[in-house]
Design goal:
198 residues, 7 helices, mainly alpha, 0% strand
């Protein structure tokens, strides 16, 4: 027969570290759960971190590559936030392929006519993930700005001009996509309450 000490796995030298990591993960998740309903304050905190990072870059006169990579990542997050989860252009391509093969068409995720059923706009990147990813990226960028190995010498005006050109081209393409498929990723206008006569 085995002794009771043989049935339990022996506690290795990494056991206390794993316990502390699990406790830290739980506390981090509890903090995230507490801040979830406070959308405005979350974004104000992220804007404050972003301002802190920008001040760090301006006063340190360096780490332009880190700032550029951070800006490109934020632009990527913004584009994913503005796009629908199911791209209607891909649905049109699939619908055209199905019709060529003789199959019946599937319903589009966005209404295409006035009589279509209302379908709410579902983002490819939800607001919560957008905020969390942007905040993490900003914190990582701040940390990177304290290490000399990330301070690559570069002529920063070229990066700024290139980023603005990239921003304008991608946003123009996104706006054309929104106009073509008739969707708006924001709640604009007055909210209508049913049963209200005002």
């Amino acid at each position: 027969m085995m002794a009771s000490s043989d049935t339990e796995p022996s506690a290795g030298p990494m056991e206390p570290l794993a316990t502390h990591l699990a406790k830290a993960r739980r506390q981090y998740q509890q903090w995230l759960d507490r801040v979830t309903p406070f959308v405005l304050y979350r974004w104000l905190g992220t804007a404050g971190l972003l301002a802190l990072f920008m001040l760090r870059i301006i006063f340190a006169q360096g780490w332009y590559i880190v700032a550029y990579a951070h800006a490109i990542y934020l632009l990527n997050l913004l584009l994913a936030f503005l796009q629908p989860k199911f791209d209607p252009s891909l649905q049109d391509d699939l619908l055209a392929d199905d019709l060529e093969e003789g199959a019946e068409g599937t319903a589009s995720p966005l209404p295409s006519q006035r009589d279509d059923e209302f379908r709410p706009f579902v983002r490819r990147l939800p607001e919560w993930q957008f905020w969390l990813s942007a905040t993490r990226a900003t914190l990582i960028s701040i940390v990177c700005s304290f290490f000399e190995m990330f301070d690559v010498p570069v002529y920063w005006p070229i990066l700024v001009v290139y980023w603005f050109v990239l921003f304008l081209l991608t946003m123009r393409r996104q706006i054309q996509h929104m106009v073509k498929y008739k969707y708006v990723p924001f709640d604009i206008g007055r909210k209508v309450r049913y049963g209200s006569h005002r």
